[in-house]
């Protein structure tokens, strides 16, 4: 009898669980003070230690899975914290990669309960999911940069039009027009 076992439902559950519920949602524009950053960093470390103590009560692969999940949550929380603190695009992009890596590590640990070809297939599916997640993150980042560049180009073109309109004016009216155009388009 030829049976076909699909790991996709199990893998989807792993990656859904890997969203690491319980952490604050990532906000792209938020920034924080240095003391808040340090306090959050300390809380993340304390949360990891607490989770690790909980894992110590387990044994075998269950313990390995628990530790992998705790490490993944810690890495993701630190990446989100860094992105929130710096507000840099590269730190925001790193969050998606950290999430993909943590989900892969967790899935790989869960694959250890299997043996032979089933384990190999499980690991390959986890690796493929990680690759897809990283590719999606890269595409989103590149698309975001392209959108920002296009927006900047449109704003510059509109600014030039406004400045050209101001050239037709004279005196205080022209000065007011130039000042309004600069304020409207964020030019100094």
Question: Which descriptors apply to this entry?
Answer:
single chain, 188 residues, mainly alpha, elongated, disordered N terminus
Q: Would you write up a description of this structure?
A:
The structure is a single chain. Helix content is 79%, strand content 0%. By secondary structure, it is mostly helical. Helix 4 runs antiparallel to helix 5 and helix 5 packs antiparallel against helix 6. The longest helix is centred in the last third of the chain and has 52 residues, at 116-167. The model is unreliable at 1-29 (pLDDT under 50).
Reported for the largest beta sheet, the result is: none
Number of helices: 6
Give the mean pLDDT: 82
Class based on secondary structure composition and strand pairing? mainly alpha
Q: Give the SSE string.
A: HHHHHH
Tell me briefly what this model is.
The chain is mainly α and 188 residues long. It is built from six helices and no strands. The chain is elongated and about 80 Å long.
Lay out the secondary structure.
Layout: H1 8-17, H2 34-56, H3 60-86, H4 89-111, H5 116-167, H6 171-184
Helix pairs in contact: 1-4, 2-3, 3-4, 4-5, 5-6
